[in-house]
Amino acid sequence: MVQFDSVLIFILFSSQVSAEVYNYSFPTNFAFGVASSAYQIEGAYNEDGRTDSIWDYNLHEKPSWVIDESNGDVACDSYHKWEEDVQLIKELGANFYRFSISWSRILPSAYKDTEVNEKGVAYYNNLINKLLDEGITPMVTIYHWDLPQSLQENGGWMNATIADNFVFYAKTLFQLFGDRVKHWITFNEPIEICEAGYSSDRKAPFLNAAGVGGYICSHNVLLSHGKTYREYEKLFKPTQRGQIGLSAASYWYEPKENSGLDAEASHRALLFSLGWYIHPLVKGNYPPIMIERIDEISKKEGFAESRLPKFTDSEIEMIRGSFDFIGLNHYTTVQGTFGTDFPEPSAYFDCGVKSSVDPEWEVAPTSSWLRNVPWGLRKLLVWIKNEYGNPPVLITENGWSSTATLDDTDRIRYINGYLLSVLQAIHEDGCNVLGYTHWSLLDNLEWLAGYSARFGLVDVDFNSSNKTRTPRKSYGVYQEIIKSRRINP
Ligand code: NOJ
């Protein structure tokens, strides 16, 4: 007994939660899911009429973008193995499956008013119908980074006309699948689409227009989101009765020093990342601090006007309130401190916050940016509650990258810690959290990290022709959490 007590005290102390937290359970309407995205799992890149996305095009042109020179040509082969995937989700007991649709599989010519590809439609119909047969709710991400290459050749997200093409694509999905799909996410992580893709070369299309590209792209993404939401509201919602959100990515920024300056810097970094997208949705426009700083710095740099585009009054009206839930992708925490060592022009310079990590925080074996800091999620949920009036938040991604081992105790530690934080945010802070989505069901193509970073509850043997799937230890733990609706100490 003495021994047991000391182990328990050690665990409680080391994870910084009270014993009481283990008595909390997830509310009855709280939903659990798993997530994936088309390019990362489907493969079949040129089958049945699908055309190239910016990822196919760029990774074929220059394989060395990816550390192991891999690509998504085959990936997990989910285009052929989707029934096995659904079986795994069913056995897990998940309430919903968040997956994305490949734009160029549905509309190979990509532009508005072009023809739908019936074979692509059949693939998603089969998947959706099977999920529903098994009692799993489908949740669809309309855009998870795989822009058709033909649109990129016309400027991609830098060209304002893309909104018409996106709205056409989204409406096509509502028409085709909206009788059965009631949960839609327009965009996954606009900051990655735009900052990483257009301001740097960390994501396709590798445009590297720092300080300019990310702002223009984000503006067009937000307008596309708002227009899509309003079209759905007008034409589909009265009969389909679904819900639409957008998934924004955010770290928690913890002030590095216990000082007013670092607290202010960390708050500003949150407004420049999560607020960049959520502020417009909730309040109609970018955070005032972004508008002011970018305007001032742009002028000092000699630009004729702010590098941050402006919304018109009617656009503000359209965007304000264009969500039924806020999707939150959260993985980790960094420390924020006042100052900058970034070149101009750049969004980082505009923000003026340096980030670092506490070396004590456990680091993921295959992703150096990812540290296990569970309390960061709780603080972020409270920040959203206070900043935005406690909107409904769905955690649309959270996960850990291990090695290929089946004995993934590090992932188990991460899941337990982050879900305990969610329980505290709900029970102690009154945060409005609708559910939790683990990234990911399967190991998959982790973008430029290729197949080296393993995010799956299920291991995939990428060397086998069958892409053999084997559940890890964490799969069993998550299964148990979903069943018992609490965390087992
Ligand atoms: C965010 C992205 O949505 C997803 O595609 C990616 O694999 C995970 N985070 C892990 O980095």
Automatic annotation (TrEMBL):
<dbReference type="InterPro" id="IPR017853">
    <property type="entry name" value="GH"/>
</dbReference>
<comment type="subunit">
    <text>Homodimer.</text>
</comment>
<comment type="similarity">
    <text>Belongs to the glycosyl hydrolase 1 family.</text>
</comment>
<keyword id="KW-0326">Glycosidase</keyword>
<dbReference type="InterPro" id="IPR033132">
    <property type="entry name" value="GH_1_N_CS"/>
</dbReference>
<dbReference type="GO" id="GO:0005975">
    <property type="term" value="P:carbohydrate metabolic process"/>
</dbReference>
<dbReference type="Pfam" id="PF00232">
    <property type="entry name" value="Glyco_hydro_1"/>
</dbReference>
<keyword id="KW-0325">Glycoprotein</keyword>
<keyword id="KW-0732">Signal</keyword>
<keyword id="KW-0378">Hydrolase</keyword>
<feature type="signal peptide">
    <location>
        <begin position="1"/>
        <end position="19"/>
    </location>
</feature>
<dbReference type="GO" id="GO:0008422">
    <property type="term" value="F:beta-glucosidase activity"/>
</dbReference>
<dbReference type="InterPro" id="IPR001360">
    <property type="entry name" value="Glyco_hydro_1"/>
</dbReference>
<protein>
    <recommendedName>
        <fullName>Myrosinase 1-like</fullName>
    </recommendedName>
</protein>
